[in-house]
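agent> Task received from the user: take the single chain below, predict its 3D structure, and emit structure tokens. No templates, no multimer pairing.
agent> Plan: (1) validate residues, (2) run structure prediction, (3) serialize to tokens, (4) report one or two observations.
agent> Step 1 OK, no nonstandard residues flagged.
tool_call: predict_structure(input=
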Amino acid sequence: MSNIKEIKNRIKSVQDTRKITNAMYLISSTKLQKAKKSFEATRPYFDAVSHEIKRIFRIDENVQSRYFYPKGVIEDLEGTYGYLVITADKGLAGAYNQNVIKEAVRMLSEHEDNMLFVVGECGRNYFVSHDIPIEQSFRYSSQNPTLYRAREITSALLDKYDKGEITKMYVIFTDYHNSYSEAAEVMRLLPFHKADFNIAPPVWEKKVRVPFKFMPNLTEVLDNTIESYVLGIVYGALVDSFVSEQSARMNAMDSANKSAQEILDNLRIQYNHTRQSMITQEITEVSAGAKAMKRKKEKKALERQKELIRMLQERNDS
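)
tool_result: status=success, residues=318
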């Protein structure tokens, strides 16, 4: 009976676990849809900002800005490189956190002078436990990506860049492709290439008939616009990572649900086999007991019959 009880307890435990994983799956699904809608609602603004930057370069392609590579410089810049690493605050999301951290470690190993900015407790705990210095940790930003928190992060990064403490900035995050495909991405955040914005105007753009006037000057306007553009990139990376996290957690919980169902099926088969074996054993014991009782009765009847015969023989002899 103890074996049956253990199996029943194990079945109940797996069922309780499956309830939790199923609830986490549904929660992640809801958060994913909400994050997608939030990002789609702000996308038109940042698309417009990008369009205005392109328009500025079409007006004056020689305009200079501290947020762009100096003329003649392509990639290599000396100085400190900054890395914004976006992870989650929680686990149970498959290889989501590990992939980002692995990519971050690879980037840190390629350059000696680095400055690390971390979003998410998983990344912070990893770097702290491995004695990798963190310049600034942004807490509670990965679970609820908002423009306010993205602006706070962007302000800290731009402040370091404007002071010259950072010469190049990267953002390392998880790019969401679809429900079954996420990959850790490394995007150069600063400085930009002018070629990134050197495209022909769209068909719907109206031709400029009267020259624009830029106050106080074209460089200041470009710098202010770039700050909004960087904000859009950071916010997009936060939302993209958050969506990828929820998708990874959904897949992990879905796999956990399937595994739990397989375990339950095996346990039920084991339970039925054990129960059937116990029933068979009980039937065998009852049958054996009945046969023993029958043999005992037959033996007593035979002994009584012999006793009667003996008594009759003694009477006859007397």
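agent> Step 4: summary for the user.
The chain has one domain: 24-261.
agent> Done.
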